[in-house]
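F.,

This is the one I mentioned.
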């Protein structure tokens, strides 16, 4: 039982393993036909999705949403004016809705200094 020390280990085997790992990591090489079929499948899926898609019916239409938001904003403005005029200004809350009150406020703001 004599072993030969002059024999070198097979250096090509680790190289093959490294190549296999590299190929496994990068995946199989892609060809033009693979890419074309992939594009065709993607297009086919898009068309199928369009066919299956149900038309969307809104219960609360967009135009009605806009009107409701504008009405709520106007209501919040009037309510804020009433609270501010009654609480901060020590006046009657409903006086905010009178035109004479606003004319008086405009006259005070635009009053010319002599």
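My design for it:
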């Amino acid at each position: 039982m004599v072993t030969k020390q002059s024999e070198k280990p097979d250096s090509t085997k680790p190289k093959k393993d490294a190549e296999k790992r590299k190929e496994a990591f990068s995946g199989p090489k892609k060809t033009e036909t693979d890419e074309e079929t992939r594009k065709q499948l993607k297009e086919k899926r898009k068309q199928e999705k369009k066919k299956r898609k149900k038309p969307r019916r809104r219960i609360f239409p967009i135009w009605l949403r806009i009107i409701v938001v504008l009405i709520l904003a106007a209501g919040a403005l009037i309510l804020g004016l009433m609270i501010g005029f009654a609480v901060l200004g020590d006046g009657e809350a409903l006086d905010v809705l009178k035109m004479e009150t606003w004319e008086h406020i405009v006259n005070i703001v635009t009053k010319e200094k002599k």
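DSSP finds four helices and no strands in the chain.

Talk soon.
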